[in-house]
Amino acid sequence: MPIQPLPTGLPIIAPRAADSHKGTYGRALLVGGSVGMPGSISLSGQACLKGGAGLVTLAVPDAIINTVANFEPSYMTWALPTDRSGHIPLHAKSRLREKLEASSCLAVGPGLGQSQGLFHLVGHLYETFTGPMIIDADGLNLLSLRSAPLAGRAGPRVITPHLGEFRRLVGKPHLSMEDARDMASELAGRQKITVVLKGPKTLVTDGQRHWHNPTGNPGLATGGTGDVLTGLITALLAQSLDAYEAAVLAVFLHGLAADLAIETTTQAGLTATDLLSFVEAAWRDYESRRDHLST
Amino acid sequence: MPIQPLPTGLPIIAPRAADSHKGTYGRALLVGGSVGMPGSISLSGQACLKGGAGLVTLAVPDAIINTVANFEPSYMTWALPTDRSGHIPLHAKSRLREKLEASSCLAVGPGLGQSQGLFHLVGHLYETFTGPMIIDADGLNLLSLRSAPLAGRAGPRVITPHLGEFRRLVGKPHLSMEDARDMASELAGRQKITVVLKGPKTLVTDGQRHWHNPTGNPGLATGGTGDVLTGLITALLAQSLDAYEAAVLAVFLHGLAADLAIETTTQAGLTATDLLSFVEAAWRDYESRRDHLST
Amino acid sequence: MPIQPLPTGLPIIAPRAADSHKGTYGRALLVGGSVGMPGSISLSGQACLKGGAGLVTLAVPDAIINTVANFEPSYMTWALPTDRSGHIPLHAKSRLREKLEASSCLAVGPGLGQSQGLFHLVGHLYETFTGPMIIDADGLNLLSLRSAPLAGRAGPRVITPHLGEFRRLVGKPHLSMEDARDMASELAGRQKITVVLKGPKTLVTDGQRHWHNPTGNPGLATGGTGDVLTGLITALLAQSLDAYEAAVLAVFLHGLAADLAIETTTQAGLTATDLLSFVEAAWRDYESRRDHLST
Amino acid sequence: MPIQPLPTGLPIIAPRAADSHKGTYGRALLVGGSVGMPGSISLSGQACLKGGAGLVTLAVPDAIINTVANFEPSYMTWALPTDRSGHIPLHAKSRLREKLEASSCLAVGPGLGQSQGLFHLVGHLYETFTGPMIIDADGLNLLSLRSAPLAGRAGPRVITPHLGEFRRLVGKPHLSMEDARDMASELAGRQKITVVLKGPKTLVTDGQRHWHNPTGNPGLATGGTGDVLTGLITALLAQSLDAYEAAVLAVFLHGLAADLAIETTTQAGLTATDLLSFVEAAWRDYESRRDHLST
Fold this sequence. Notes:
The structure is a homotetramer.
Chain A: E1 27-31, H1 39-50, E2 55-61, H2 65-70, E3 76-80, H3 92-101, E4 105-108, H4 116-128, E5 133-135, H5 137-144, E6 157-159, H6 163-170, H7 177-191, E7 194-197, E8 203-205, E9 210-212, H8 225-238, H9 243-264, H10 272-277, H11 279-293
Parallel strand pairs in A: 1-2, 1-4, 2-3, 4-5, 5-6, 6-7
Antiparallel strand pairs in A: 7-8, 8-9
InterPro entries (chains A, B, C, D): Carbohydrate_kinase_pred_CS (IPR017953), CARKD (IPR000631), Ribokinase-like (IPR029056)
Organism (chains A, B, C, D): Bremerella alba
GO molecular function, one term (chains A, B, C, D): ADP-dependent NAD(P)H-hydrate dehydratase activity
């Protein structure tokens, strides 16, 4: 079978240089988790490792830190306080500061939950972290509650809403997918951010550029696959792709992993944990098509 | 080798629609677990994911929540109180209410243990949850203690007794398997519920319809395989099959997974964890026979 | 390649009957573990499942119960008290009694550690449990401290010393392996117990019968492989083999698993966890040679 | 394809003797871990098992002992106190003494963190443990803070700095890799220790002998791979190789595992956990080339 060329518009990452080291591939910080929800942030962290980040640290409430750590020994964890409702409190800010300074990119959201403190914390991070940042899941729901949800960013931003989350973000509860796509592009251009509108043929846009993702299948309709995507985008931000390109390549690899997965498993049986184990097959497929291209 | 057609009477699920999402495949809630018994409810939860449910939440005593969470990052957990005997207390009712309202189906029983509080809690759920509900293991043993065990259901119900549990349920300690089968059919018809009488050639019946399951083998005679079945039934209820059809298809896939498993492993060596890893092979076999049928 | 016949003297287990269930394959209870040592008893428990026991329960100090539970969801755990030194105290006796009555066999030792309380507890179990019982590792070291180490057994007993443990047991610190073999046979005959003297060509003897095991390799010289053997013997006791036959077949399968493992891995790289994953290959090899025999 | 001979200068380990046992392959003690960092010491411990050590014990702060234990049942753990900052305090010395006496080699560093107490503890171990010892990661950073970092060793020592760590060790923040290589050789000769200078073509030197490692690739540029190397060196020290030879063979196998890994995975997707699973393939490749050599 002839090798399928990679689709036009997909970022091409160069092979790793022989003298590169962990630092070359960035230090990713992911903030999330709450009591009862240690899995989401771990899925993101595992995906961030598999996406190629050099060093991955998960900042989580101390009540779940051992549980989060236990999923995977290759990432590090960073204990934040836990409030009475099992969430990260606002005063975790000072404890986070130290880590943020040493981080090349930031993800906020997986398993975070919602609280008054988190509303302020997420807004604070959005407005002060100067590196690239991705906001997903409850992080995004909390942003939506702000009077001007996406205003005040201090650096490059990626948001990854599905249709329901996008509706909340723009305050239009009955928006169709088609109208949402138009609005996502307009919003991205106005705010100078990257929007990943998840769904069939996921759209990635920064207002100027548009990516209609050709990979993926309904096997992804299961809990945790969004967390895996967040981790992959974070990994590519850590490796210095710009926000739009990181989102495009991550969305492509994520869908490709799902497509490769259902060649041996099935749509119904696919879990987020299974998906993780196919990320490397997706990388491999991407690399062989890239290398074929260049010869 | 020619492809074996699927047996007559087996429900045929349509392929997933391209625009489907997590919500399409339901929100399953599973209640169980007790101190020392975190494994059963986790097996059910993992099977529920592998069975194709969109979102899976396990409501467990807070004393074991981290342990349960640690088995699998793709499901969520929901902390209930733990009483002094290590069980879920009756007053967990109010904490459960919030989750029940957002759940499309409910499973109660795996690893639950028994207590006075649980006796009342299981009865309460049986009599008030209006969606489809499956009751297994200690959930079923607790129902059996009620003066009219199966009376007062508020929605569709599936029970999954093995012979010993069925004897306790009907108060006949010496019932033969043959008589139990007759009585199961009669009971299902009278109570308008679905009874899964587990054993060789497991019977599924709602009084009108009867399924004599052709799959499965004695390798299933090991701890935890019943929990896997409970999870699969829950997954299919979440995907909107009616109670009888969900039970039939789950019983079929569960036995098929065991049959496929012993082609590479053995009856003696099969564990419930191994069985889980063959659920996707069972799905795959089912789908290829379904698709062959339709061509 | 022609199929190698099974060696003469190896017990032949019949295929599982179609109408068998969990209860048919016994209820195994394994007592062990201490703070810092949750792995050993878990390895035994996992091996007991893979050895074919119907239901497996691990009774461990409550300080490590969640850790033990987390290794494998298919077994159950039973919380015993933990004393200040991290061990099971003597007064765990009453809590154990309830489980012992429902157990078809008992293993004591993996990860147990040593204390005054355990010295008395192990002696008590040895002298009162009327079913078959296996004593290994620290359980055996504690028995060795009694004035008459093996006196007073209340049922069938299997002990599994390596040379060092056997020397302690008989109070002869310089015994050669050859002399130990002679003495093991004499001891087994006198005490009417089964002795498994571990080493190259492990000896199993009840004084009348002798098994010189042909399987196994030096890859087994790594921590935890003895725990796996204990679990396999327990599984076969649970399935109603007599003590000598259970020990012979378990020793054979254990060594065979190691032999099959190093066909794909290596002696240096083999871990106890790897070994576990080859138990089913050993069963499969045994069954195919058994079935070939019978045709 | 013809079998590649092993490179000249690589230590050749003899096949395991038939009558060897766990004790033959040594008792390794690894000291590390801190709150939030349980993964590193576990990766080292798992690598130490896969490297062939007979018995592996991880001495860690009691606050994380269950988490560390849960990664792998085949090693043992040993609880040290935890100070308020989540680290091992200086007074852990007395608790360690007992284990040190029974250990054939020692590793210090993975996930250790830094504190005043640890500064003194690491120096104390360096100056008093008479067996072979490897110091890595924070262990090395703490040594660097001493006025004479490498003075006063009580036995054979291996250090494993990457360029940044080596710069701190010698107090030259702008040293080039080339100059570092020269200085590493000079330092090793003067201190009579073995230095592993990690990077492309990792250098191993004891001042007299020099190994320029031919294996490895930039897929190793991900968190945790250094911990795996530490575990492999420890395993070979436990098996009585001298410090230089242990380091050479471990560095070779570690790089080879990475090279074999990326034949099925990719550089970007490789994690430290993946690397671990290829250690046995590296052993296998080494052994087949060794055995081919000898015929």
